[in-house]
């Protein structure tokens, strides 16, 4: 699974053959608008939309209504909600209308402040047990998969072993059923905090800035555009025009 937030990044996921495309709310903006763009670009991956903070905490009726918008208006195929047992009933309501739900426990970025920032979760026996119970409640509520974020490797392994549904890890070690990364982080495009568990497969940040600088310089010095970037006109037509 990999995130995408707009048409070009969705096309990257499409072309790479990655199976699931998550419109992550690490984006934190106009989610429906971005989902529509991603759906145009990523045709083959299964499309999951992060429900934004505030769109599912005020009761099941509200949550179901908002989940439906992602399916009907934004062409998504599933939604993702952050939280454990406290949102199990809400998830049950969403799955009961036929919308697949992906869960998300451990470090849940929407609650980063009450979790004490971006830091490891489930790292005491008591916290790990609570996490396992949360994951089981989500499974019971009908989730088809659960993201495990920023938890010790063995807690993720044990949780995965004790669930029937697949887990997708981010900062949770190698023993989860699948992995997820934020596309711009793994490409090395920095516009947000990059956690230690994100491997950078490229440093596109420098490449992009260098490209933009070259463009700017070439425009200022008249190097770009050249004849090859221009449209031709028949000599005879040009003469008539100049006359
Ligand atoms: O918001 C996001 O991109 C996510 C992934 C890190 C799982 O939730
Ligand atoms: Na998210």
From TrEMBL:
The protein's annotated pathway:
Cofactor biosynthesis; (R)-pantothenate biosynthesis; (R)-pantoate from 3-methyl-2-oxobutanoate: step 1/2
- Give one GO biological process term: pantothenate biosynthetic process
* Annotated catalysed reactions: (6R)-5,10-methylene-5,6,7,8-tetrahydrofolate + 3-methyl-2-oxobutanoate + H2O = 2-dehydropantoate + (6S)-5,6,7,8-tetrahydrofolate
Q: Which UniProt keywords apply?
A: Pantothenate biosynthesis, Transferase
Concerning CDD domains, the annotation shows: KPHMT-like (cd06557)
The GO cellular component terms are:
mitochondrion
Q: What class of enzyme is it?
A: transferase
Task: Write one Gene Ontology MF term.
Answer: 3-methyl-2-oxobutanoate hydroxymethyltransferase activity
Q: Which Pfam families match?
A: Pantoate_transf
Presence of the UniProt keyword Transferase in the record: yes
Documented EC number(s): 2.1.2.11
Q: Does the keyword Magnesium apply?
A: no
Q: What does this protein do?
A: Catalyzes the reversible reaction in which hydroxymethyl group from 5,10-methylenetetrahydrofolate is transferred onto alpha-ketoisovalerate to form ketopantoate.
- Matches recorded under PANTHER family: 3-METHYL-2-OXOBUTANOATE HYDROXYMETHYLTRANSFERASE
The similarity annotation says: Belongs to the PanB family.
The protein's matches in NCBIfam families, at most eight in alphabetical order, are given as: panB (TIGR00222), PRK00311.1 (NF001452)
Protein's recorded name:
3-methyl-2-oxobutanoate hydroxymethyltransferase
Q: Which organism is it from?
A: Ambispora leptoticha
Q: What is the lineage of its organism?
A: Eukaryota, Fungi, Fungi incertae sedis, Mucoromycota, Glomeromycotina
